[in-house]
């Protein structure tokens, strides 16, 4: 009876995710249509000339200094980005709901779901929040958006393990097809460490240290393409670092640390070059913002250098902590335990028994040697 109830409830949860997604999509369509129908200030309607603004940058308030409450209250509507994010969220939640159906008694980890949805939320903020409103007039805001879309959001998305979820929630025939694609030549090539690192390097250097950035800062559609490329390249890179997905490449911890270190070097190089620029990045003018273009470019370089390295360093710390926990959990004589026993032997001259840690601590001979060592330390004082 309980299995029947479960099988009925889970599809309802999946349907609810798509119903909510549909409602949000309808609201987005209405909002875009409403913006297209607003007067343009010349007695006519905004109409076709502002279609791109309606789709990507609708509803933004007049520019004012990006300080204080403006950081959280200023926004615009990037309807296309929000529509994609809503659909991806509905897909992921559907997979979460189907896991118990495919594998009774198994539930998808809540932490993975929270991480993936948090990654989508970061994408939403980076494309609709204050940094997105100002990303064509302030290079500093543009750079913060880069860090969010290229590093923070992909790291959270890949920690959510979407490919593993797709396999777990799929029926057997579809699971075989997904596995075949995931381990096929194209995906294996794109996710190989040299290609992933090269893509990351090209994305960082190519969009910041060439004339391409001037085009991106002044052209709405180019900025949208840039956002998409950043998220895809970030997921390509962090699938090797954090994903542990069922792809061909499963890197050992030292290899992951090495990739992160090289990526940090790329961020540092790009930031230093921007700090030394003598020509500012071309931006749209805004008379309400009293910011020097060259100083804003230099500040953006500092954000890339210190902000990018800080994010990568934090991810590396998380990886190292996870590795230490796995080592201790998989081996009762991990490196910490081995170091403890080696120190004991070095100071007492007693051989440590090859028994487990509990018996080692309860061994009478070991305890006597330890007490004698403490007595020697006390006499030396």
Commentary on this structure:
- The chain has 381 residues and is mainly α.
- It has two domains: 2-330, no CATH class; 335-380, no CATH class.
- It is built from 18 helices and no strands.
- The chain has helices spanning 2-36, 51-56, 70-73, 79-102, 110-128, 130-133, 139-159, 162-169, 172-182, 185-190, 193-208, 212-218, 220-243, 253-275, 293-330, 335-348, 357-362, 364-380.
- Helix 4 (79-102) runs antiparallel to helix 5 (110-128) and helix 11 packs parallel to helix 14.
- The longest helix has 38 residues, at 293-330.
- It is globular.
Average pLDDT level: 82
Please work out how many helical segments DSSP would assign: 18
Count of the domains:
2
Radius of gyration from the alpha-carbon trace, in angstroms: 27 Å
Q: Show unreliable segments.
A: 1-8, 41-49
What summary fits the major beta sheet?
Answer: none
Helix content class: over 70%
Name the helix and strand elements from N-terminus to C-terminus, one letter apiece: HHHHHHHHHHHHHHHHHH
Classification by helices and strands = mainly alpha
CA(first)-CA(last) distance: 73 Å
Shape designation: globular
Strand percentage lies at under 5%
Number of strands: 0
Summarize the entry for a quick read.
The chain has 381 residues and is an all-alpha fold. Helix content is 74%, strand content 0%.
């Amino acid at each position: 009876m309980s299995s029947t109830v479960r099988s009925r409830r889970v599809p309802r949860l999946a349907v609810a995710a798509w119903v909510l997604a549909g409602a949000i999509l309808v609201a987005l369509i209405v909002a875009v249509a409403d913006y297209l129908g607003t007067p343009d200030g010349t007695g006519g309607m905004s109409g076709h000339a502002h279609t791109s603004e309606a789709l990507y940058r609708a509803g933004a308030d007049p520019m004012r200094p990006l300080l204080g409450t403006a950081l959280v209250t200023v926004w615009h509507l990037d309807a296309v980005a929000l529509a994609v994010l809503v659909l991806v969220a509905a897909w992921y939640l559907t997979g979460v709901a189907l896991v118990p159906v495919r594998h009774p008694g198994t539930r998808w980890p809540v932490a993975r779901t929270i991480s993936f949805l948090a990654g989508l939320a970061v994408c939403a903020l980076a494309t609709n929040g204050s940094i997105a409103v100002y990303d064509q007039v302030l290079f500093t805001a543009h750079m913060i958006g880069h860090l969010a879309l290229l590093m923070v959001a992909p790291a959270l998305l890949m920690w959510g393990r979407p490919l593993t979820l797709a396999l777990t929630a799929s029926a057997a025939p579809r699971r075989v097809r997904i596995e075949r694609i995931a381990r096929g030549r194209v995906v294996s090539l794109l996710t190989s460490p040299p290609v992933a690192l090269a893509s990351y390097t090209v994305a960082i250097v190519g969009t910041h240290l060439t004339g391409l950035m001037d085009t991106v800062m002044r052209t709405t559609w180019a900025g949208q393409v840039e956002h998409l490329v950043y998220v895809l390249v970030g997921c390509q890179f962090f699938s090797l670092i954090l994903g542990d997905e069922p792809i061909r490449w499963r890197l050992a911890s030292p290899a992951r640390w090495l990739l992160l270190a090289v990526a940090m070097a790329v961020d540092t190089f790009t930031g230093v070059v921007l700090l030394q620029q003598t020509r500012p990045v071309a931006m749209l003018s805004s008379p309400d913002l009293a910011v020097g273009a060259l100083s804003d470019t230099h500040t953006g370089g500092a954000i890339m250098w210190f902000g990018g390295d800080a994010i990568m360093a934090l991810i590396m710390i998380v990886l190292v902590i996870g590795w230490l926990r796995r080592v201790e959990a998989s081996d009762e004589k991990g490196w910490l335990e081995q170091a403890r026993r080696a120190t004991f032997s070095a100071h007492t001259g007693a051989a440590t028994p090859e028994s487990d840690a509990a018996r080692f601590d309860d061994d009478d001979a070991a305890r006597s040697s330890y007490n004698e060592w403490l007595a020697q330390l006390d006499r030396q004082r």
